[in-house]
Write a structure and sequence with these properties.
799 residues, mainly alpha, two-stranded antiparallel sheet, 3% strand, disordered N terminus
Amino acid sequence: MSFKRKLSLFITSVLMISSVGCSDFINGQQTKEEELHFSNEKLACLQGVPETLKRLTNGDGEKEEIRTSVDCLRQALMYFQKKTYGAQGNAYTVEEMRRFFSKYFLKENVVTPEFALELMKIKKAVLGGSVNNLTKDEITRLIDVLAIVRDEAVDLAPHIKLLLLGVPVDQANWQQVSAAVEQLRVGLQRLLEKTETSRSDYSFEDGKRALKGFKEFIKDEDTDKNVTQWLPVVEVVKNVLMGQEAQLATYTQWKGSLNSLIDLYGLVLKYHYIIHNFDMSTQPKVREVSQFIGQAIDLIEGAPQISTRGMIPLEDIDNLITTILNLPQIQKIAKIRPISIQTLYRAAILRLLEPGRNGDSRGILGLEKKHIVALRREYNVWRLVQNFVDSQLIAGRSADSLISQDELLKKYGDFNATGYIKAGLSTDPYEHTALENAWKDYGDLLNSAVLISYNAKGRIEEVNNAHASTTTWKSLTTSNLMRTMSRGLLLAYGSNTSGELTKAAMQTSGLVTWYEDFKELMFDLKAFDPRTGNTGERSFQEANFFTFSGNGDSYMNQRETFEFVSLLFSAGLSSSGAVYNDMLLAGCGKANGKHLSEDVDPLGFYYLNEQCFQTNFRLNFSKYFDNLPEMAKFVANLKPEEWKEFYTTLRYLAYVSNKEEQGLVEVANIRTMVTVLHYMESVMLIYDQDRNQTLSLDEVYKASPRFLPYIKDKKKDVPFDTLLNQGFAYMVFYGKEGSAAEIAWFQAQKIWLDEANRLNLMRAMKAIKDMQVREAAKKLQKNASESAVMQNKDKNRKK
C-alpha cells in the first residue's frame, strides 16, 4: 500500500471520529445541492492533505503548506458540523459514523465495530464525552485542538526528519537533537494541557486494542510488522518506567509520565546519532558521554514507578532485557542470552550498589532509590576525576600533548577538588566525604611507580627508558575509564571498602566470585573460554606477579587491581583482536586446506594456520606491539634459533588444546600470548633500574619477593627463604626449577653470569608453568586414587 493511501485512510479515520454524514444520507434522502464529494469546493483542498502529511513526515514540509492543510481539515469539519445530522439530533452514534464512512469513503478498508469503539475511546480521551456518540460541541473542541496541532506542527516541522531517524548517523549534533526533543516536549505538553486526556481513564490496554484495530484496518504488511515487533517493546518500557498497573489519575501524573517517555526517546536519539560508539577522543565528546550517562540516571531516578513504589521490580527489568535482546536488530549485532545480562545486573545491585549485602539476595525485590544513589556516586567520582583531567587542556595544550608525572602530581595537589564537589556534584555532606575519599584514591594511583599511559591505538605503553613517566589528556581519559571499572571491581568483590580504597583488599575468592558473576555474559561475548574453567585464581596470581605494583602477597590492593584491569583490556582483548584481524587479512585463516568458514574454534573464531601465523607474527611484531618498543627491538635482533625458542616457549605458555599439535592457532592462544608479552615487559620495566634492557643478578634478586610466596607454597620442603630466593634466580638464568645441588653450584659461580634478557624471563615463566602443570597432575592423580578407593568401598558394601 502506498504512503499516500495510508495517509488518506488515516485522515478518513480522523474525520470519522469527528463527523458522521448528513442525515439525508443516513435516511436515504439525498439532495443534489448538499451532495458531498471531494470535488466539492468545501472539501477539494483535502486532496492535497495526504501529500502534505507525507512531506511533513519526511521532514520536507513547509510552514505555510502545513498551515493551509490543517486549516483545510478544520474548514471541512466545520462544513460537516453544519451540514450533517445524526439520529440523535446534535450527536452521532458509533454505528451511524461507521456506516457512513464505510459507504462513502472506505471501499477497501472496513472499520469493524470493535475498531470503531476503540476510536470512540480515543475521542473521549481527547475531547471528553461518551464512547457511545459524538456531539457537535465535541466537533467544535476538535476544531480548536486542530488549531493547536497546526501551530505545534509548524514549529516541529524542521525537526521531524531528525526525530524519525531520517538524518544520517553522525550528521546530527547534540544541540540539534536536544532542540528537537524539547520542541516535541513543548508540543505534546500543550496538547495534554488543552485536551481531556489527563482527566480520562484511557489505559495502555486501550491503546493496544486501538493499534490492533488500526493494523487490521490498514491491511498493510509493513504496518503489521512494525506494530507486532515494537508494541511489546513499548509495553515493557512502560512497565519499567510506570509499572504494570499504572493508573494516571491527575494532570501532574500524566505530565510526569509524558516527560519520562520523551526523556527516554531523547536518549534513544542521542545514542543513535551521537553516542553509539562512545567516542571519547575529544573533550566535547567526553562531555556528551557524561551528559548522556547523567541524563540516563536522572531518567531512572525520576521514573514514576520509583516515585510511587520506591523501586523498579526485578521482574519488569527482566522482561525489558528479554524483549530487547530478542529483537532481530539486536540479534544481528550480538547473540546475548537474557540470563547473561540478568545475572550481571543482579550481581551489580547485590555487590556494587549495596555492598553491605555481600551478595545475599534475600529480600531484594527490585532496583531501589538507594541503589540509584550509589550509582550516581560512582558517576560523580568519574566526573570529579574527568574534571581534573580536562583541566590539563590549558594554554593551547592539545589532547596529545605530553604531561610529565611530576607536573601531573603538582597539579593534583593544586586542584580544588573540595570546591568542585560542593559546587557541582552534591550538597550532601556524607557524599562530600565519599567523593573526597575517592579523590585521595586517585592521587594514590597517580603516585604509582609506573604511570599508566596509552598510545594512539589505546594500548598501554610500556616504555623501558627514561621518558616513560609521561601521559596525555587522551591517555588520562582512558585511564579514568579503567579506574572506574577497577574501582567497581574492588568495591563489589573486595573487603574494607567503606572508606578510602587505598586500604581495601581483594582476596583470591573475590576474583573467583567475579568470574562466576561475569562468565555467562563473557561466554556470549566470546571473552571467556569455557574450557579453562574458573580462572579467578589464575587471574589473582597474574595480578600479583606481573602488574607494575604486584608484590606476591595474599591480596590485591587498589593499584594492582587498576593495573590488572588496564592490562586485561589493553593486551588480552584490544591488542589480541588487532593481531587476529591482521592475520585474517594476511590469508592465515585457511587451515589444513579447509575454507575458513568450515573450521572454527570453540569460541566461534576461525582457526589460523600455524606457519602463516608465525611468519607474520615475527614480520609484524613491531606493529602489533608498538606500545612495547624495547621488546620489539629485542625480538627484531633475535637469531633464528633464539626466535624459535622464543616463539616455541610463548606458544607453550599459551597452550589451550591439542589443536595446536595439528598446526592450528586459536584466538585463545593469541590472547594469552599477547598478555604474556605484556606481563614480561612489566617485570622488565619495574626492575631494570639502569635501563640497559637486561636484568643483573641484583635486579633479579629485587624481583624475587613478588614470586617468593608462590614458590614457597609449592616447595614446602625448602625451609629457608634464602634458598628459595636463589631458586628463583636459578629459574631466571637457567629456565628450570633447580635441585638443592644445582642451586648450591649456582651460588658458587653466579658472579660469572651474564645479565638476564627477555628470553631468560620467558624461560622463568615456563619453569613456573611447569611447576603448575606438575601440581595439577598430582591433584588429578590424587583425585583419581580417592575416587578408586570410594568405588572399592561401594563394591564391598554391596557384597
